[in-house]
Amino acid sequence: MNKKIFIKCVSMLAIFLSAQLVCAQESTLRLVSAFAENGIYVQRLQLWINKFNAEGKGVLQINFLGGPKAIPTFEVGNAVKTGVVDMALNTGAFYTNVMPEADFLKLTQISITEQRKNGAFDAINAVWNEKGNMQYLARMVENQPFHIYLNKKIDKPDLTGLKIRITPVYRDFFLELNANVITTPPGEVYSALERGVVDGYGWPIGGIFDLNWQEKTKFRVDPGFYDAEVSLLMNLPAFKRLTETQKAYLQKQLLALEAENTFWAKFTNEEVARQSKAGIQTISFDAATSKAFKDKAYAVGWAAAQKQNPEIASKFKALFSK
Ligand code: 173
């Protein structure tokens, strides 16, 4: 081979390899949602994914695989842990089978922005990395307290004789209020109400219209308690495999997602009005009873956390409380 041809071959090879390198730098992350595809959480997530993919060409893409039909709600946490999927939209109550501490996140009383500042976010990740083999990426729902929704009237905070649909979020508090509890994923709430298997359910202030529960709901009990935590999680090895460029891009989009969380306060007002228009009556108590109700929710929640894992509960309580 003469020198000229050799140089040409080398330069062609270099062009070929650099093109390969550019291609190799774009990765696609497979994402599932533990919440229904037509619900408000996934609607907002879809908008974010569209922007993510449009701006992330050549760097990082997200492939949304679907909701609970792709992977059942209570199995999504394990799918992230084992790397069956790379990412998920999930809430702690749905993956207590991976680590019971996941449900502690409902007890945060400060914003995710503050959690990133005061060390709570890093403390969460230390636990999530070690016990869940996952990275806690971003919280996309805030300011959405949970409520009790009922078909039977109560005149004091006492659920004696009532069967209530729960997830781990509500278990200890509703038991404390003397309820009979039945755990179901959101996808089974409508039929449980329809068949009279339950007299009510726990859910945040927003979202009951997504699966038509307003058709089977007569009352909402005020005040709300805790704060619905819905977050993006990532399989830890998949997170570690990202290049620095990809990590920086992901981080930029995650912070942009959290910056949109001002939406939720506005959504609360809309949903309260919509519930009342749908004929759902509010059950409320006097100021002292309301305060005692809310205080009891947190006292019971933290006591259960303490029993589950004293060290982590104490650490989180100091970082999560107002
Ligand atoms: O299914 C639930 O009631 C539940 O635990 C939950 C958690 C966060 C947001 C919405 C619902």
Identify the CATH homologous superfamily of the largest domain: Bacterial extracellular solute-binding protein, family 7
Query: Which CATH class of the largest domain applies here?
Result: Alpha Beta
Strand order of the largest sheet: 7-6-8-5-9-11
- The unreliable regions are none
Looking at the chains present, what oligomeric state does this protein adopt?
single chain
Helix content: 40-55%
Structural summary, described in words:
The strands form two sheets. This protein has a six-stranded mixed beta sheet. It contains twelve helices and eleven strands. It starts with a helix and ends with a helix. α5 (120-132) packs antiparallel against α12 and α11 (287-308) packs across α12. It has two domains: 27-144 and 228-265, D-Maltodextrin-Binding Protein, domain 2 (3-Layer(aba) Sandwich), CATH 3.40.190; 146-227 and 277-320, D-Maltodextrin-Binding Protein, domain 2 (3-Layer(aba) Sandwich), CATH 3.40.190.170. It has 322 residues and is an alpha/beta fold. The protein binds benzoyl-formic acid. Benzoyl-formic acid binds at residues 91, 93, 167, 169, 186, 202-204, 228, 230.
Helix-strand layout with pairing:
Layout: H1 3-25, E1 27-33, H2 40-55, E2 60-66, H3 76-82, E3 87-90, H4 112-118, H5 120-132, E4 134-141, E5 146-150, E6 163-166, H6 171-176, E7 180-183, H7 189-194, E8 200-204, E9 219-225, E10 230-235, H8 236-241, H9 244-259, H10 263-277, E11 281-283, H11 287-308, H12 310-320
Parallel strand pairs: 1-2, 1-3, 6-7, 6-8, 9-11
Antiparallel strand pairs: 3-10, 4-10, 5-8, 5-9
